[in-house]
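[SOLVED] Need 3D model of a two-part complex

Original post:
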Amino acid sequence: MIPKNKRVFILAGSFSNLGSLVNMIEKIGAQTITCSNSEKSFDRLVICGVGSFSSGIGEFSQPPNKELILSCVKRGIPILGICLGAQILGISSEEDNGKGFGLVPIKTLWLKGKVKNKVPNVGWQTIKILNSSDPLLRGVRGNARYYFSHSYAMFTDQKEISVAEIDEIPNSNAIYQMNNIYGIQFHPEKSQNDGQKILENFVNLEF
Amino acid sequence: MLLLDGKRLVKTVRFSKKRYVGDPVNTLKILNEKEVDEIFLIDISKKTGAVQDSYLKEIASELFSPAAFGGNLQSPEDALQKLKLGFEKIVIPFRKIWKNSFLQKISATAGSQSAVVSLDVRKLCGPYYLINKTPQIFHQKQIRLLLKEIQEQGAGEILLHFVHRDGTFLGYDKDILACLPHDLSVPLILLGGAKNEEEIQEVLKLPNVDAAAAGSLFSFFGVHRAVLPNYLQK
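Solution:
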């Protein structure tokens, strides 16, 4: 059951694909707000981005984006970073030697030479769940597949924040969680019903 | 693989004989329900500008699966604009990759995973092929070198399109499949002629093939080839 009054603010980089994300969140039954709306009260924040790390951090660390992210962290509003949106919340990235927000102990590393997979890692993959009690994974089917498209992946020394790893990339974070911040490497808005389930759980989170 | 002709979806046989197969938004809604892995949408309208960006945005927002867009791209800037509309990837024809640094600009701005290079091969006679209608003739074994060349130019994925099999249900070109390179580091997708689900399962077992695409197979159903969007059962 999704409360109809849940409002999701979508913060996106200029290359981000908002249409599918907005449509999918609205299909779930929540309302979406983007930068173009004048209404600024919301109870969920989704940060999505595609493109290079430097372009992403460049945009997200500009006002008012930076203030928006930091105030949500402080107020305990559930945050979901998607792909680049998840990476920029970490400490650093090997891409452009970029520095992230440092909100979560995540380092983003280039996959080349670290995995047997082709780089970029593009396509449908399964995840290995490390913390099955996490509410983001509630009701997720066992063989769920998600759409990935990345050349860099997120790694951490603090295993307790890893919720799931990408099956084919050991130790990588497909999903991380720290306090009110979630980061996911795959694109739920492009992962059909399995992705919709993740977004539904996120909208439904109770901290 | 969906072909857009204005605001209509069509399907061709060997790149001609356009047949209407449905309204784009309706078809995508059906394909979403069938949980399609990926969609390629190619604008084959004769008139450039027949498909407005506002319409493409409407189509893209219906997609809950990854999607690539190609066809009638005016410039790298135009292609980058298409990514903003909600497509993950751009399909660049091989002949255009150097024009205005097309491939390089897409890879550098949006990442190489957004750049799919399509290599259209047309069979001449015996082992000889034409590539993207160029006057130059290629031996099937040279296609291996071409694929490697495309990879070196920075493609994120390569779409190998058998034009002579388009819409024929005759199967992918086995002669070329036999001489594909084994050491490509970017994913290779086959397109053109898919016969049935069994053939798709079969080619996916090949070590150097990463994906199989189809247009007619997913647009027509049954012995009479009635128009009905459908997808793999397994």
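Edit: Chain A touches chain B at residues 14-15, 17-20, 22-24, 50-52, 118-120, 122-124, 147, 149-151, 187, 189-193, 195-196 (CB under 8 Å).
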